[in-house]
Amino acid sequence: MAMKGARVRGGHGSFRVLLLLATVWLANGHPQCLDYKPPFQPSGALVFCKEYSKFGCCDVERDIAISNRYYEVMDFFDYGGFVSCGKFIKSIMCQECSPYAAHLYDAEDANTPLRNLPGLCGDYCTDFWRRCRSTISLLLTEDARVMEIEGDRDKFCALLELKDPEYCYPNVLTNAELNANLGTVQADPEGCLQLCLQEVANGLRNPVAMVHANDGTHRFFVAEQLGYVWVYMPNGSRVDKPFLNLTSAVLTSPWVGDERGFLCLAFHPKFKSTEKVYVYYSINVKKEERIRISEFTLSVTDMNMLDHNSERILLEIVEPASNHNGGQLLFGYDGYLYIFVGDGGKAGDPFGAFGNSQNKSSLLGKVLRVDVDDNNDGPPYWIPVDNPFLQDVKARPEVYAYGVRNMWRCSFDRGDPGTGAGRGRLFCGDVGQNKFEEVDLIIKGGNYGWRAKEGFSCYDNKLCHNSSLNDILPIFAYPHKIGKSVTGGYIYRGCEMPNLNGLYIFGDFMSGRLMSLKEDPSTGEWNYKEICMGTGQSCNFPKLINNYVKYIISFAEDEAGELYFLSTRIPSAKTYAGVIYKIVDPSRRAPPGKCSFTAHPVPVKGKLYHFHPRESKGTTGRPAATHKPYYTLPKTASKLNKGHSGKMDGLKDDSIGNRVNKKDPNSKPRKGRRRKLRQGMVRLASPGKRLDRGRVEIFIKGEWGTICDDLFDRKAATVVCRQLGYPFAIRVAKRAEMGQGNHLSILLDDVKCEGTERTLLDCQRSKIGQHNCSHKEDVGVICGYSEYDEEEG
Ligand SMILES: *[C@@H]1O[C@H](CO)[C@@H](O)[C@H](O)[C@H]1NC(C)=O
Ligand SMILES: *[C@@H]1O[C@H](CO)[C@@H](O)[C@H](O)[C@H]1NC(C)=O
Ligand SMILES: *[C@@H]1O[C@H](CO)[C@@H](O)[C@H](O)[C@H]1NC(C)=O
Ligand SMILES: *[C@@H]1O[C@H](CO)[C@@H](O)[C@H](O)[C@H]1NC(C)=O
Ligand SMILES: *[C@@H]1O[C@H](CO)[C@@H](O)[C@H](O)[C@H]1NC(C)=O
Ligand SMILES: [Ca+2]
């Protein structure tokens, strides 16, 4: 058995490999236990392997087991043997509890055999051989070659030595670099925190929210923008029928970046008894866009479904523009429902004398607070008696805080698991206009500054310098070179990652950056640290990965308090490109058993779909990842929608998204599965193969052709861009600016559109193929996510 280890070590080649790997491990610091998991702080002090009481790989039970085995071995010794060799044997046996146990036992690579004893340093081995070589047979009882090596120091140490001067025992204990940050979150040389991820769900269409019911079942409920809510069991299996299907009522579109849709749900804090759920979605009523907040009740026959006939509307707010619809619903620890409403849209909050956000008679640009308890008779909600503006006759009584632009994702802090400190604090990400994204700590009656201010800086100079503004500044703001659309997150308060306790983890939708803030309790300041994916060996645990798809839509907390985020490779409400990841700290875990829970069983009607992860690790063994996210749209296709591509809507190519922090080694352009060519579909041809711009080519009657530019305007370009999944056309490029399609026929001329047509064929135009222009007038377009400017998120 143990000899296998020796064989692995043998030979010049493997020796070189070992040195190479050792360099990488050293660079990353990678404590790991024999169960392929990070070390932990035992829940009680260890009696035998005392030195690992603070941090290591043994809990109290394991320590007792090692101690028992030690005394069994010691039974074979006389007093002299005990004195000379007892310490050696104990130290060697206790290496199982070292935070570097996996390395010492050669367990980091699950494909090579485990050593039976930890790898020793050369000098130490020689010493051990000189004084106690006869004890080896007691430690390696099953090994037939023990007798043979006992007499030969070289053979003896070839078996026991670990030819890595940094990691062998006992050097590993004294290596300052390895031990300096042991058990704390690892950071790379630039200070970026290295975390890992575990994929928990995939194939979702713009997953906007994931919540739990706080009912002991540990189910999680995932909402898709187009109007579905799905139920997942604690083991990741999904119930086949939706919890809620509002797709026929919800207003949204497949356009990339459309902010309308089903945006949030929140379970009543006493859901177990009230069985009520609240939802927030966009709707079209009498040609008016509105947001609607309504209440649903659980089905009486199925715990995994709402009663679709039970909807009760709490509130509808007219949206003057299609963007900035807010979209967060939360229950506070006060039992009240908090509603986060956007400023109504367009740029710069242009409505009324000073915008909606500073106008307390408008519900737009506000945090609202209402009481939905005991609402079965009478109005669907009450106003809490301590709402802040009840005395102000001009203010709507629902207003709790104002001056917000478009809060996207807010959360209440659960508080420190030990002391409860911080409990009830309300954190929000407020999406910025042209320059800054901000994170706010919301308090009752607070004015968060918009549109007077954006982040810390003035946006509307006049309002900004009015001394009665009295606004509350963000706890953190970042400029648009870091990201263009903040996605608020959570303060980590879970059990499994003790080092993350108190860290506010959030992200940016556009740049795909993960970020963190930590409060300095002495100054109250929040310190920023970027989060990047663990490189090298640090995410090399089973199920963990170190990359994610780029567009971070939302964060989530499960019933136990563990943290997740939801992102997608293609931010379209009809594309199955969304993934949910659990955030994992590879540097330390909770002691085994501490975080276990029993979920209340839930009867399931119908089928369950088991979860199959699709994401894979980045290349390990060398730094595969850079933590610098991409800022431009990628150019190449990567793997997508396995098993779902047939359901993809529209004509959009599957390649606008990307993944952050690593190049996917598995990504290949899809072959042999061409989408069906449909009459009127378009593509953009450009030398750089850019997806968002190029010469317009249209498919008609079996052939691709070009279009003349004479009457072609922004409205016609909008039709093209929407076909391709972009909400807006930024520019029309005339006179073959995007190149001449000389190899193609000119298929359309004199195209005049309203902008709402499905394809250019529905616009006013010449007959197909009839034209009086040349390829010098081939038209091109540039598409985008925003009509105002290319920069805004
Ligand atoms: C997941 O849990 C459900 C019960 O909640 C069970 O029916 C199902 O078989 C489990 N799936 C797997 C893969 O274990
Ligand atoms: C959701 O509802 C729509 C109509 O309201 C229906 O066409 C669709 O099949 C439903 N989806 C599911 C998965 O039940
Ligand atoms: C404030 O909002 C209300 C409700 O939308 C509106 O009637 C009013 O004109 C606005 N006030 C100003 C000063 O713009
Ligand atoms: C400052 O703001 C107050 C209240 O919003 C308003 O009544 C006042 O006219 C403003 N002052 C100036 C100089 O704009
Ligand atoms: C050719 O150009 C004229 C204007 O110069 C226009 O009225 C006519 O419709 C065009 N013919 C075709 C087939 O596009
Ligand atoms: Ca602000």
Automatic annotation (TrEMBL):
Under what name is this protein listed? Answer: HHIP-like protein 1
- Annotated SRCR domain ranges read 682-784
Give the keywords, sorted. Disulfide bond, Glycoprotein, Secreted, Signal
The family note in this entry says: Belongs to the HHIP family.
Location(s) in or outside the cell: Secreted
Q: Where is this region: Disordered?
A: 614-679
Bias (Basic residues) ranges = 668-678
**GO annotations of cellular component type:** extracellular region; membrane
Fetch the SUPFAM superfamilies from UniProt: Soluble quinoprotein glucose dehydrogenase, SRCR-like
Task: Please list the disulfide bridges.
Answer: C753-C763
Against InterPro entries, the record matches this protein to: 6-blade_b-propeller_TolB-like, Folate_rcpt-like, Glc/Sorbosone_DH, Quinoprot_gluc/sorb_DH_b-prop, SRCR, SRCR-like_dom_sf
Q: Which Pfam families match?
A: Folate_rec, GSDH, SRCR
